[in-house]
Amino acid sequence: MSLLLRQALRVPQRLMATAAETRMAEKLKTELEAERVEVEDQSGGCGAQYAVFVVSNKFRGLNLVQQQRLVNKILKDEFKDLHSLRVFTKVPDTDKQ
Q: pTM for the whole thing?
């Protein structure tokens, strides 16, 4: 998780990702051809609450609700075990050289 997102959410840094974090990150990275994906279990390890941050060109032209629905659709199989999912999305900067 990025330092900025971590500070905004006020969560401590962990050293290793859980299996569920890794699984969700891989799904998002593959389906969205994402430049960056971060997934964090914010429930203290029980897997009930996650935050995800995704940067993908597939969000270009979509409004924020459409971007979040796309993420939700990709992670729908994970929802049976979730209490909440916080989704943060971003379109990559096009002015980078």
A: 0.78
